[in-house]
Amino acid sequence: MSGSERGRTMTQVDPAETGQDGTGTSRIHTHAHTRLRRALGALSRPGPWKRGPLLVALALLLGLLLLLHAEIPNGLGNPGSLVETFLPWFGLCVPVLLVAALWRRSAAAVVALLLPVTVWLNLFGGLLGDKSHPGGDLTVAEQNVDSGNRDPAGTARDLAASGADLLALVELTPQATGTYEKGLAAAYPYRTVLGTVGLWSKLPLSDTEPIEIMDYGPLASTKPASEKLASNRALRTTVATDHGPLTVYVAHLGSVRVMPRGGFWTASRNIGAQALGKALTKSIAAAPSRPVVLLGDLNGTTDDRAFTALTSQLRSAQATAGDGFGFTWPAAFPVARIDQILVRGVQPDSSQVLPANGSDHLPVTAAISW
Question: Which of 330, 263, 345 shows the shortest CA–CA distance to 299?
Fold first, then answer.
């Protein structure tokens, strides 16, 4: 091989490396195009403030529902009362939406959740802590003992062991009333039973009378008195305490139903709530300084607008001096507090829900002082 040939051999370069055959140039163009496409895709992809518009809308709707629940119309199907009955549970939607917002990396949705969180805490945050304190001049208790209770004697023993000074029972049946009277006689020397409701007391009772909350209206007068008394569901009595007379109401308002076509049926309960509210107004007007306690199964929560006639005159012992929501029904897995202790003119010191004792409702108790 000549020197000139060796020189040519040493300076020879692969055309693919120089791009003389077009392949290298094409590869460079391809890489550049890919990078440009990725950059444009990143720019066109929605950022964290634009992601999850549906989640943002749901969070805002949840906040507005909690904030404006009183504005939900109670027309066909009573949707307003239905929402208010389970209003605290709407707070569970917040963690669900938060998980979805984090998964979508939506900063806008996370910020939007501040609205329902703030409103929920404003409505129910005060119920999360224990507001009870020692003391109390009188202890009152209430339970719907369940007409289908298979062990009324056992229920009576548990209730007597609660130590309550006043014990209100509702949904009594003729068959079970005698069992309760026998089981509670030793602890409660005074009692009054009218129809399906009764009050057992360690203190003297007087001036007991039924309160008409079911047969309310023009047809009420056509029903025989004996028949009305047998099914009576509310009473008023006076308890003689060391601090003076105490007016006590015991009530079991009408049932409610959730029906596929009719929605949330509350007609009977609402009529009873209005009638009971009028009786309270009359009683308070006659003796403005006398304290009042209402014990009963109202078949609804105090958040429900249907009870304005009651809650405008009385306050909840659980909301004032309880620990938590105090749900009472159903006993197996309570989701709502429909058994109430409402007071006026006395101070609730504590409020508790007692353990299950054979009924489908949990018993409630509260200590009050003058």
Answer: 330
Asked whether the bond before 116 is cis by omega within 30 degrees of 0, the reply is no
- Report cis status (omega within 30 of 0) of the bond before 204: no
Range with the poorest average pLDDT among 38-47, 60-69, 278-287 = 38-47
At 248, is the secondary structure helix, strand, or coil?
A: strand
Q: Tokens at residue 290, please?
A: 């006398």
The H or E element that residue 207 is part of is strand 205-210
Pairwise CA distance, residues 3 & 369, whole Å: 120
Q: At what angle do helices 174-184 and 152-160 cross, to 10 degrees?
A: 40
Counting beta carbons within 10 angstroms of the beta carbon of residue 66, is it exposed (0 to 12), middle (13 to 18) or buried (19 or more)? buried
Distance, in Å, from the CA atom of 303 to the CA atom of 123, rounded to the nearest integer, reads 10
For residue 69, is it left (φ>0), alpha (ψ between -120 and 50) or beta? alpha
155: helix, coil or strand? helix
User: Among candidates 334, 298, 335, 289, which has minimal Cα distance to 316?
Assistant: 298
CA distance 250 to 246: 13
Closest residue by Cα to residue 52 from 119, 7, 1, 97 = 97
Q: CB atoms < 10 A from the CB of 61, how many?
A: 14
Tokens found for residue 273: 């709530």
Name residue 368's amino acid: I
Structure token pair of residue 8: 């040519």
Cα–Cα distances (Å) from 299 to 76, 238, 251, 313, 331, in that order, read 20, 24, 10, 18, 14
Q: Is the pLDDT of residue 217 over 60?
A: no
Cα 27 from chain centroid (whole Å): 67
pTM: 0.85
User: Are the C-beta atoms of 314 and 342 separated by less than 8 Å?
Assistant: yes
